[in-house]
Amino acid sequence: MSDSPFVLNQVGPVLEITLSKGKANAISAEDSRKLNRMWETFRDNPELRFAILTGKGEKFFSAGWDLKNVADTGEESDSDYGAGGFGGLNYPRNFNKPVICAVNGIAFGGGFEIMLGCDIIVAEEHATFALPEINVGVLPDCGVVKLRRRVPYHVAVEMMMTGRWMDVEEAKHWGLVNHIVPKGQGLKKAREIVEKLTAGPPLLYPAIKQVLRMTEMVPENEAFAVHDACSSVETVNRSEDMKEGAKAFAEKREPEWKGK
Q1: Record keywords: Lyase included (predicted)?
Q2: Which one from 16, 40, 113, 124 is the annotated catalytic residue?
Q3: Alpha-carbon torsion 197, 201, 202, 205, what sign?
Q4: Is residue 257 part of a domain?
């Protein structure tokens, strides 16, 4: 049984992260701080452009907060989880690189909340989701903020107040996952998505993420001003790639992206 919270595998510009601690890929506060540092290193490494996040095994993506550790050590629910919050993806700073999530089983509590912090979500057909913190007297911190912004109010409230489970079909219905794949095929599908993204214009992905993040709760008329002020948008507008895209279209050929 692994005591390491995650295992890394770099494939070219892609960093694959596998949550790996114990039977349920659970995460303590110390583990969360390690994950935060890992995400910060990924963010700041210009050679890495995309990440894939998954869990070890076939049963769990992640059970979230390590309650066994809480019982053993008395770890508080408001412990220091790192600058980006629990798991590093709740509110990371200046994090504009795409993260693809391959949910390979149960994602509940903090594991479900980490999934919500990803950009494109692939779920295997047996995956299930829940915020069962109500059963142990803990507030689902990220859930009360993020889930309401992803699904209708009444769906979010029922999940948090009852701790009920959601299957993969319902999650797809509410837009919480992008793709449902057969058991054991989540990582394969995630890699296919990243392969498609890798062939695209490198400057666009950070711009899309930055604008989405900075305009999420901004009125539409104000959002355009925020859009125009984003540094990543300015980079795109002044880039050689933008000129190359128009030129390739006119010449009826595939563009050759340079990322500048």
Answers
A1: yes
A2: 113
A3: negative
A4: no
pLDDT tens digits for range 23-57? 999 999 999 999 999 999 999 999 999 999 999 99
* Angle in degrees, 0-180, between the axes of helices 220-229 and 204-215, rounded to the nearest 10: 140
DSSP code at position 146: I
Q: Is 169 a catalytic residue?
A: no
Q: Is 21 in the same domain as 69? A: yes
CATH number of 118's domain? 3.90.226.10
Tell me if 62 is assigned to some domain. yes
User: What number of other Cβ atoms are within 10 A of residue 169's Cβ?
Assistant: 11
DSSP strand pairing (165-167 vs 128-130): antiparallel
- On whether residue 258 sits in a domain, the answer given is no
φ, ψ (nearest 5 deg) of residue 75:
-55, 130
AA identity, residue 42: F
pTM to 2 decimal places: 0.93
Domain count, the chain: 2
What span, in angstroms and rounded, lies between the C-alpha atoms of 105 and 83? 27
Among residues 133, 195, 240, 254, the one annotated as catalytic is 133
Q: Is 58 a catalytic residue?
A: no
Tens of pLDDT, residues 129-161? 999 989 888 888 888 888 989 999 999 999 999
| 94 dihedral zone (left: phi>0; alpha: psi -120 to 50; beta) | left
Which residues form the domain of 214? 204-250
